[in-house]
Amino acid sequence: MKTRLVFNDIIPFKGFLSMCLWPFIFVRNSAASHYNTVVNNHEHIHAEQQKEMLAVGLVLAAILSLIGCGWWSFLALPLFLWWYCIEWLCRLVQCRDAHKAYRNIFFEQEAYANEKDLGYLSHRQRFAWLNLKS
Predict the structure, then answer these.
(1) DSSP class of residue 99?
(2) CA 80, CA 96: separation in Å to the nearest integer?
(3) Bond preceding residue 78 cis, omega within 30 of 0
(4) How many beta carbons lie within 10 A of that of residue 84, not counting itself?
(5) What are phi and psi of 107, to 5 degrees?
(6) Sign of the torsion angle spanned by Cα atoms 10, 15, 18, 24
(7) Contacts from 22-31 at CB under 8 Å and sequence distance 24+?
(8) Mean pLDDT by groups of 10 residues along the chain of 134 residues
(9) Which residues of 14-49 are buried (b: 16+ CB within 10 A; e: fewer)?
(10) 3-class DSSP state for residue 4?
(11) Residue 107: which of 127, 90, 121 has the closest Cα?
């Protein structure tokens, strides 16, 4: 499924230019003129991360469903968001600085480290963010 750009005034939070919630990349109208190929590459790296985590979430949800967890098993589907938020909270406790915590999330480290390499996605290894050093 192709990732689609959505320009709006709500998502992402103020202070951010864009945000990927696969299969969409949301861009704030007020910052649209700053959306360029580097930012686009950054968000597409997140799209790949989210697709990987969705696959893991689907497997986890199926296993939880089979062992009788009922509708609770569906909570495994947005695994990327759970991981992202929990890691941000852990980093916040560790760093005591919200922006530093954000920049130290493994998903963000991979995206920032490779956003200028416009060919990165063609040779990116699956789950590459797991190989990063904190």
Answers:
(1) H
(2) 23
(3) no
(4) 20
(5) -60, -45
(6) negative
(7) 22/46, 22/47, 22/50, 22/51, 22/54, 23/47
(8) 93 92 95 94 97 94 91 88 96 95 96 97 94 70
(9) eeebbbbbbebbbbbeebeeebeeebbbbbbbbbbb
(10) strand
(11) 127
DSSP state of 27: E
pLDDT (0 to 100) of residue 57: 92
Contact 38, 59 (CB under 8 A): no
- Find residue 27's DSSP bridge partners: 7, 18
pTM above 0.90, yes or no: yes
87: helix, strand or coil: helix
